[in-house]
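Run log, item B.
One chain of 154 residues. Sequence copied directly from the ordering sheet:
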Amino acid sequence: MSDFDFPSAMPEKPVQSIEEQLRDSATTFIADITARLGDGVAPPPELEALKKVRDDEGSDVKALSLKIYELMIEQGMMYDIDADTGALTPTQFDIKNNLDIPEVKAEFRHLYTYGMELIKRDMIDIETVKDCVKTRLIERTGLSPEEFDRWLGF
């Protein structure tokens, strides 16, 4: 038996910058959404927007984070996920008339708090997240920003 320790002889995996990690995450997210779209289901425009930002070498962490966040929101708002296959199909769900359903509130809370985490980690500035949350989350509920915060328990 040899004294050669193969695992320790392997070069260390290079440490990725946060920007490289985000580009990899974007690629994975794009592939996942694309693969899961049901037959004949069009991708959301945010998918192409994320591709463009990911492929633009001049894009920074904030631009990548925003486009990932926007696609994340639109996936949750525009599509139903088949429990058996994971396929995404356009939703017919009426958000405004179903705010009392716990799963609806949980989805909005998750997406809202994800945006707050991006701010805390300095990945997106506060005004950008506010605009995104207002247009992509709050307006879908029909609530005012203050009512939205109360509804989520903030």
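Observations after the first pass:
- The first helix runs from residue 6 to 9.
- The mean pLDDT is 93.
Flagged for discussion on Thursday.
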